[in-house]
């Protein structure tokens, strides 16, 4: 498909985005990429399914528990 770029940009037809809720648009080496984003932002997912163990200081000593060093 070829289309003109207007002062607002380019409109992507909805039928090309069927089943897609969100896209990432970026320019790499002179090529514009429109990439579907699968799922939600991983940062927003943090803490939704915490691991429960018998540790009360995990937020203070997380490096020790993750990497075994202080």
Evaluate the radius of gyration: 21 Å
Query: Which stretches of 5+ consecutive residues score pLDDT under 50?
Result: none
Overall 3D geometry? Answer: elongated
Q: Sheet with the most strands? A: 2 strands, antiparallel
**Strand percentage, roughly?**
15-25%
Distance between termini? 56 Å
The whole-number mean of residue pLDDT values reads: 85
Short structural summary:
This protein is an alpha+beta fold. The chain is 14% helix and 17% strand.
Describe this protein's structure:
Helices cover 14% and strands 17% of the residues. With 70 residues, it is α+β, with helices and mostly antiparallel strands. The chain is elongated, with a radius of gyration of 21 Å.
Which secondary structure elements does this structure contain, and how are they paired or packed?
Blueprint: E1 23-28, E2 31-36, H1 42-45, H2 62-67
Antiparallel strand pairs: 1-2
Which structural traits does this protein have?
single chain, alpha+beta, 2 helices, 70 residues
């Amino acid at each position: 498909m070829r289309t003109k770029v207007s002062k607002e940009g380019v409109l992507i037809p909805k039928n090309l985005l069927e089943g897609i809720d969100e896209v990432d648009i970026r320019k790499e080496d002179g090529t514009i990429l429109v990439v579907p984003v699968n799922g939600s932002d991983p940062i927003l997912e943090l803490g939704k399914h915490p691991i429960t163990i018998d540790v009360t200081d995990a937020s203070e000593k997380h490096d020790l528990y993750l990497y075994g060093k202080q």
